[in-house]
């Protein structure tokens, strides 16, 4: 096992260069897990505002009731200086001034010149209140133009806009039955980037070293069989890939407090198949890269490229159809799709059958990539 | 009768249009230090690669220790040590680990391997550098490590392919002394080089190669006897008339006289006191001259006379 021993000795020297990827991976996973777990309630935007009613009619009072709801109303004097001071001193973000003649104008369905409003130019909240006012007046106007009296229209508008919209928080924990914690789902979604980058960065340089012409010639001149050399290098690569996967998977399970349901186990299995895919890609890179430096470049291109295209960093639901069509020819796409299905965050209905379909596609990718690695290796040997 | 260690018959190796080896025949006997001398691109390394089955060949046969050499002739490989032209060691391993790894490819017994590794380190004088990584070694020490990796398992046949390229004179001498010592210990040596002085210094028999062909073979004396030249006289002369050069060419045993680059060059074949006769001629004609050299023929002269090109010119 001379070749295997030297494989691990060289790996020990090359591994520190992969540490950066491990640190980046765990930093992202931990950060995303922490961010994802805190938002569990929804609160509508509240704006501090003042309402000055110069019309003082039932219709204008109905508007005051509407705009005061869910906002903090502060009383100020009806004076131009007082209004601008309160905006300037940030006492309020918005001052709604209902112009005299509001009722008479709106009764005809007219929506122009109803208000003289003041708002802080820096405040985004002003836009929000503008929207609310616009919505109210247009709704009211629509009811009036449809033949309702002003009183009826005010009542219907208040009912329509007063309805509370039920806000349901959507997050990674969409499907309760998935039992996936957000941290677990995030972690396994980012795993392809971690495994792929570390395997390419650490493993490819080792194989590159062992296959260096001078070293290879000297080893080939010895009495160790060529098949034994190759077998020992492949064994070393598999051991490293499996140990790396086991460490990553164990860390993922620990992030989920060690809980392992059927779906968790399938996610772990999914990651194992992806580790094999990453191993095959690392073998191809070691055959294609000419120098140790080019390995780092290829690790970034393959690792980041595949991660961005396939929905590792950005949810697949946010990717364009064109990107997804390209991503389908990459193994990470199917990994993410299987993982999303297990986490219940995509439209795929969870079933063992569906999971096996995705896993089967990944296994097919792994087989093809291993075959490509072998073919390239043989072509290189023949050329040399 | 001496045992034949390597027998190469009618070896032909082609790279598309280029014939790298053209019906090469070699026979290397046990205990020899056999030199393969030739300029770069003459086919030395290709010969070694075919001999080691690192390269396939188009025609001919290679036998090592009496058996056909193939990539799976592990019995023969066990007895061969190879020191390549380019240093073949792991940057990631220490001096000790490197020798231990390459020795371990041949020696399975741990205690014996340890002993051999220590002996190899001692032999190349790297005792103080055991824990050094190759990057920390000078060019000469690196070459010695390269040699240690190739000989640690005590092979019977050691092949050294240009082991002194880019090595300082001190390390070069140390390496050459080491090779002679290995030969004394019983190893047959095949030594390739384009440095004729080295080959002359250590090789018991030499084959001169050019353009994939063996153009001459024999001991140093045998090779030198093959050529007309027995003495080359060089005299620093700034100005000399064509008549005097022509007269010098007519002196007894002189077969060539020419003035080149401020030097009068006289080539002689046999005879004695050639130098005295040439100096008398110059003195009688009042020709001023500087330093005078008289050299016996070198392997470069052999190469020059056979190929018409100087060994160094063709590199």
Any descriptors?
heterodimer; A: mainly alpha; 2 domains; 15 helices; 4 strands; elongated; B: 315 residues; alpha/beta; Rossmann fold; Alpha-Beta Plaits; six-stranded mixed beta sheet; four-stranded antiparallel beta sheet; 11 helices
Describe the structure.
The complex is a heterodimer of chains A (384) and B (315). Chain A has 384 residues and is mainly alpha-helical. Chain A is built from 15 helices and four strands. Chain A folds into two domains: 2-38 and 175-383, no CATH class; 48-162, abc type-2 transporter like domain (abc type-2 transporter like fold). In chain A, 68% of the residues lie in helices and 4% in strands. In chain A, helix 3 links the parallel strand 1 and strand 2. In chain A, helix 3 packs parallel to helix 7 (150-162) and helix 11 packs parallel to helix 15 (352-383). Chain A is elongated, with a radius of gyration of 32 Å. The mean pLDDT of chain B is 90. Chain B is α/β, with parallel strands linked by helices. In chain B, the strands form three sheets. In chain B, strands 6-7-8-3-9-10 form a six-stranded mixed sheet, with helices on both faces. Chain B has a four-stranded antiparallel sheet with strand order 2-1-4-5, with helices on one face. Chain B has a four-stranded antiparallel sheet with strand order 12-13-11-14. Chain A binds chain B through residues 2, 5-6, 9-10, 13-14, 209, 212-215, 217-226, and chain B through 52, 54, 71-72, 74-75, 77-78, 80, 82, 84, 86-93, 97, 101-102, 104-106, 149-150.
């Amino acid at each position: 096992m001379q070749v295997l021993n030297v494989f691990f000795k060289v790996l020990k020297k090359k591994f520190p260069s992969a540490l950066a990827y491990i640190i980046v991976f765990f930093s992202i996973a931990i950060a995303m897990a922490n961010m994802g777990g805190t938002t569990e309630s929804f609160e509508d935007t509240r704006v501090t505002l003042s309402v000055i009613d110069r019309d003082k009619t039932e219709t204008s009072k109905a508007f005051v009731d509407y705009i005061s709801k869910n906002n903090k109303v502060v009383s100020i004097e009806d004076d131009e200086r007082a209004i601008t001071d309160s905006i300037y001193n940030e006492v309020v973000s918005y001052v709604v001034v209902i112009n005299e003649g509001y009722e008479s104008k709106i009764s005809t369905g007219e929506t122009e010149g109803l208000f003289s409003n003041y708002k802080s130019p820096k405040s985004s909240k002003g836009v929000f209140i503008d929207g609310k006012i616009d919505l109210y007046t247009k709704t009211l106007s629509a009811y009036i133009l449809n033949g309702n009296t002003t009183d009826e229209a005010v009542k219907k508008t208040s009912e329509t806009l007063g309805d509370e919209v039920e806000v349901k928080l959507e997050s990674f924990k969409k499907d309760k039955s998935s039992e996936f914690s957000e941290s677990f789902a995030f972690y396994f979604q980012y795993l392809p980037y971690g495994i792929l980058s570390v395997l390419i960065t650490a493993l490819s340089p080792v194989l590159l070293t062992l296959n260096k012409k001078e070293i290879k010639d000297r080893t080939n001149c010895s009495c160790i069989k060529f098949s034994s050399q190759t077998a020992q290098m492949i064994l070393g690569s598999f051991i490293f890939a499996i140990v790396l996967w086991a460490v990553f998977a164990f860390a993922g399970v620990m992030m989920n407090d060690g809980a392992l349901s059927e779906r968790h186990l399938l996610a772990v299995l999914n990651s194992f198949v992806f580790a094999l895919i990453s191993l095959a890609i690392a073998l191809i890179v070691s055959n294609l890269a000419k120098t140790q430096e080019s390995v780092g470049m290829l690790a970034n291109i393959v690792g980041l490229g595949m991660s961005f295209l396939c929905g590792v960093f950005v949810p697949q639901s946010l990717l364009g159809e064109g990107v997804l069509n390209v991503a389908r020819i990459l193994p990470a796409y199917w990994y993410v799709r299987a993982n999303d299905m297990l986490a219940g965050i995509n439209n795929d209905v969870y079933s063992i059958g569906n999971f096996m379909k995705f896993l089967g596609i990944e296994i097919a990718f792994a087989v093809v990539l291993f075959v490509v690695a072998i073919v390239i290796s043989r072509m290189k040997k023949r050329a040399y | 009768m001496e045992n034949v260690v390597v027998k190469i018959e009618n070896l032909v190796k082609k790279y598309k249009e280029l014939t790298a080896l053209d019906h090469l025949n070699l026979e290397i006997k046990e205990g020899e230090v056999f030199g393969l001398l030739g300029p770069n691109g003459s086919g030395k390394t290709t010969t070694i690669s075919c001999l080691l089955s690192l390269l396939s060949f188009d025609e001919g046969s290679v036998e090592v220790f009496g058996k056909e050499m193939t990539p799976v002739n592990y019995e023969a490989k066990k007895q061969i040590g190879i020191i390549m032209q380019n240093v073949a060691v792991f940057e990631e391993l220490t001096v000790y680990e490197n020798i231990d790894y390459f020795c371990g490819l041949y020696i399975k017994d741990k205690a014996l391997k340890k002993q051999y590794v220590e002996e190899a380190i001692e032999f190349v004088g790297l005792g103080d550098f055991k824990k050094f990584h190759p990057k920390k070694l000078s060019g000469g020490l690196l070459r010695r490590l390269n040699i240690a990796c190739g000989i640690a398992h005590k092979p019977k046949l050691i092949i050294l392919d240009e082991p002194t390229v880019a090595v300082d004179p001190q390390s070069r001498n140390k390496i050459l002394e080491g090779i002679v010592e290995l030969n004394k210990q019983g190893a047959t040596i095949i030594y390739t080089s384009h440095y004729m002085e080295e080959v002359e210094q250590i090789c018991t028999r030499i084959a001169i190669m050019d353009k994939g062909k063996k153009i001459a073979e024999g001991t140093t004396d045998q090779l030198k006897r093959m050529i007309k030249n027995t003495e080359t006289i060089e005299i620093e002369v700034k100005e000399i008339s064509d008549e005097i050069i022509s007269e010098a060419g007519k002196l007894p045993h002189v077969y060539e006289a020419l003035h080149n680059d401020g030097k009068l060059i006289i080539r002689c074949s046999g005879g004695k006191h050639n130098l005295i006769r040439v100096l008398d001629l110059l003195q009688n004609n009042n020709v001023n001259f500087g330093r005078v050299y008289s050299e016996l023929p070198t392997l470069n002269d052999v190469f020059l006379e056979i190929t018409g090109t100087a060994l160094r010119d063709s590199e």
